[in-house]
């Protein structure tokens, strides 16, 4: 089963205080099958890791190890995300009060008809409102 995984859930795989059996289960699903993400996912994950270095939560070696592991996972970048940014995605921001960034994950899950895996409460509520499957 393919799914959309957002940055919040991705990062939980690598921070002990954010990990949970459910997040590990999503990692297992991604490892066994695949996931798809909007192109901004790499920026969000990279930025969060870089901010974690600045806050002295991790070091550069750990960041680099995380990025190497993520690059090895079967996670595909959706090449159509930007073409929907000012149309479908923007409508989702208006409808649910999400950021355009968060709405990109929701739009992708809706467009592809696949589950969304996120720790973001507002995004999950919006997904439920449009009958999208949430992991």
Overall description:
The chain is of the alpha/beta class. The chain has one domain: Rossmann fold (3-Layer(aba) Sandwich). 57% of the residues lie in helices and 11% in strands. The protein contains seven helices and four strands; from the N terminus they run βααβααβααβα. Helix 5 packs across helix 6. It is globular and about 40 Å long. The model has no long low-confidence stretch (mean pLDDT 95).
Gist of the model:
This protein is α/β, with parallel strands linked by helices and 135 residues long.
Q: What features would you highlight for this structure?
A:
7 helices, Rossmann fold, globular, 135 residues, four-stranded parallel sheet, alpha/beta
* Count of individual helical segments: 7
Ends distance: 12 Å
* Overall radius of gyration: 14 Å
Helix content: 55-70%
| Order of helix and strand elements from N to C terminus | EHHEHHEHHEH
CATH architecture grouping: 3-Layer(aba) Sandwich
Shape: globular
Look at the structure and give the CATH class.
Answer: Alpha Beta
CATH H-level homologous superfamily name: 5'-nuclease
Count of the domains: 1
Give the biggest sheet.
4 strands, parallel
Task: Determine the strand fraction and express it as a percent band.
Answer: 5-15%
Spans of at least 5 consecutive residues with low confidence: none
Q: What is the CATH T-level topology?
A: Rossmann fold
Task: Decide which structural class fits the backbone.
Answer: alpha/beta
Strand order of the biggest β-sheet: 3-2-1-4
Extended strand count: 4
